[in-house]
Amino acid sequence: MTTTTAAWLARLDSHAMEHGFHARLADRHGALYTEEDQEVLLVTFENAEDIRAQEGEKLPAGLRLAGREGWSQLCLYSEGTTWFRDDEVYAFFDDLVDDGFFDLFDRVLFFGAGAEGYAACAFSVAAPGAAVLAIRPQATLDPARAVWDHRFMGARRLDFTGRYGYAPAMVEAAERVSLIYDPTVSEDAMHAALFGPRGQHFRTPHVGWQTEQALADMGLTWPLVRAAALGRLDARSFARVWRKRHRHRPYLRSVLAVLAAQDRPYLRGLWARRVLREIDRPAFHRALAEAEEALDRESRALPPPLWHRQPRESGTG
């Protein structure tokens, strides 16, 4: 254990003495609970390295989110990417169930992304009736079920067949399961498909495999977590917050690149022109000019901009 890690763990111990508890679960996992009111409990799964990389107090990101609302918060953290496949983690949740811990709260939300999203789904079975919000979660990495996912070959030595194992089965007792993923990332889409209609599928095309970072950059993480925790996350509320992608330049550039790669000058031109209504960027001026030149060679043209079209004359009957 490095000095930095030891000092950080001591910081968690200090926090827990005033606000809840801190449990170290073998060498690679731990749990930090911060007690507030009993209306909502936010359960997050996070990577310890990411927590320590933050500025300030280096406490779990979920604690900052929960603190805005005065919610209680339980963070399970891992040293490295472990998918939380550890007997001591299982035993920890068993003890919470035996103690009736989750029954203390009116609402419980399990939240995580990627490997941590898998854990949010898998351990939600400990709190029947809880809600789950998972960003691009893996359903399992058991080769018998997910042989097509070659991204995490080292994780195949882990046991995904035992307790708290197959995430789609573990969410069956949840009140609501919300999955956010980019359907153009084939592996993420296939994992989401394993959850079937049990989950609400919120698709975020063209943000790539770092979906959670894109959502954070757009300022969408907290609104989505809050809506999910309060039982308000549905197709309409998601569509409302997802509109912010139209101001997110990496997303705008990603769509433009896809249309260019597909050699679709008409759609590329329409997209560039639509973006230029919101932001003035040289790349989109170039894309519009190139699309118009390509269409001109084909004796085609973009329609007149909507804001330049003459209003239709109304008939007199």
Commentary on this structure:
With 317 residues, this protein is α/β, with parallel strands linked by helices. Helices cover 43% and strands 17% of the residues. An eight-stranded mixed β-sheet has the order 1-2-4-3-5-6-7-8, with helices on both faces. Strand 7 (176-181), helix 8 and strand 8 (200-203) form a beta-alpha-beta unit. Helix 13 (265-276) runs antiparallel to helix 14 (282-297). The longest helix has 17 residues, at 3-19.
Quaternary structure classification: single chain
The ordered H/E elements are HEEEHHEHEHEHHEHEHHHHHH
Protein structure class: alpha/beta
As for the number of domains, it is 2
The fold-level CATH name of the largest domain is Rossmann fold
Radius of gyration: 23 Å
User: What would you say the CATH architecture of the largest domain is?
Assistant: 3-Layer(aba) Sandwich
Number of helices: 14
Short structural description:
By secondary structure, the chain is of the alpha/beta class.
Topology, element by element:
Blueprint: H1 3-19, E1 20-25, E2 29-34, E3 37-47, H2 48-53, H3 61-69, E4 71-78, H4 87-98, E5 107-113, H5 115-123, E6 131-135, H6 143-146, H7 167-170, E7 176-181, H8 186-194, E8 200-203, H9 211-217, H10 221-229, H11 235-242, H12 249-261, H13 265-276, H14 282-297
Parallel strand pairs: 3-4, 3-5, 5-6, 6-7, 7-8
Antiparallel strand pairs: 1-2, 2-4
Helix pairs in contact: 12-13, 13-14
